[in-house]
Design goal:
Length: 233
């Protein structure tokens, strides 16, 4: 991909695949638009038919090999119309495939309808669960459950209390309250998922940064909490 970016930047083959910004990064910057400031992640041109066809091929490639679902990372950063142009072509060959878009906040129902994904990650409920348990204040959770029930009338949200981008639930609220979080996860409407290690009450603190942060091994709950911080500047 690096070679393709260089060729495209100079006006060569594949220029239509990327979005360019000569001012990106200031003097000596990459010259192409990036995803959330990460120079290693060039922004694709989602208006390009070539990019759309590439997405169809990639999604279909793994479904052909036995995958049954896709988590569309950072789906919030792409026009929903792009997914609406891609997914029908994939479903022609894999009508039972399930697509979950990562959408942090906003109009969940509107995104599902416009993009044609099956569901989105229910980050609002995730946040309400851990913060209500941590603060022993359930007003936020009560409000969020009401909104969650309204979402269920349109689609079935993907629910969770942990994933690879967030601090583990046991690190947030402690082992005893983590068990209560799982009770909520498994009893509200939705498609629940358990992030590996959470079922053992494992600890991990995640500090998100624009800089690369190494993935760390999980630790058992009786070991000292493991803290992952951005690399020193």
């Amino acid at each position: 991909m690096t070679g393709q970016r260089r060729a495209a930047r100079s006006g060569g083959e594949g220029r239509d695949r990327f979005r360019f910004d000569d001012a990106a990064g200031g003097e000596g910057g990459p010259g192409y638009a990036t995803f959330e400031g990460r120079e290693s992640l060039a922004a694709l041109n989602h208006d390009s038919a070539e990019v759309r066809d590439l997405a169809v091929r990639v999604l279909t490639h793994w479904l052909d090999r036995g995958a049954s679902a896709w988590r569309l990372d950072a789906a919030y950063g792409i026009d929903p119309a792009f997914w609406a142009s891609v997914l029908p072509a994939v479903r022609e060959r894999h009508p039972d495939a399930w697509f979950m878009g990562e959408v942090i906040h906003g109009d969940y129902t509107g995104f599902v309808e416009a993009s044609t994904v099956d569901t989105v990650a229910q980050y609002e409920l995730w946040k309400a669960i851990w913060s209500s348990l941590a603060d022993v204040n359930f007003y936020e959770l009560d409000w969020c459950l009401g909104r969650h029930n309204e979402l269920l009338e349109s689609f079935i949200p993907a629910t969770f209390v942990g994933n690879h981008d967030v601090t583990r639930i046991a690190s947030k609220v402690g082992a005893a309250k983590a068990a209560l979080a799982v009770v909520l996860l498994m009893t509200v409407g939705g498609v629940p998922s358990v992030y590996y290690g959470d079922e053992q009450g494992q600890w991990l603190h995640v500090s998100l940064s624009l800089e690369p942060t190494p993935r760390a091994e999980v630790r058992a709950p009786d070991e000292a909490p493991l803290v992952v911080e951005p690399p020193a500047q």
